[in-house]
Amino acid sequence: MDGSGSLLRRYAGDFRALIPGSSAGLMQLLYPPLGAGVADHSDFFSDPFGRIYRSVPQIWATIFESDAAARARGVRDLHAGMKGVERGRRYHALEPETFWWAHATFTWEIFRSVELFHPQALSADEEERLYAETVQWYERYGMSMKPVPQDYAAFRTKFHRICAEELDHNPAADRALDIALHGRGVSVLPDAPALIGRAASLMAEPSARSSALGCLPEIVRERFGIPWSATDRLVFAVRCQAICRGWEAVPDRVNRTALRTLLRYVGSTTRDRRYRPAA
Question: N or C: which end of the chain has fewer CB within 10 A?
Answer without folding.
Answer: C
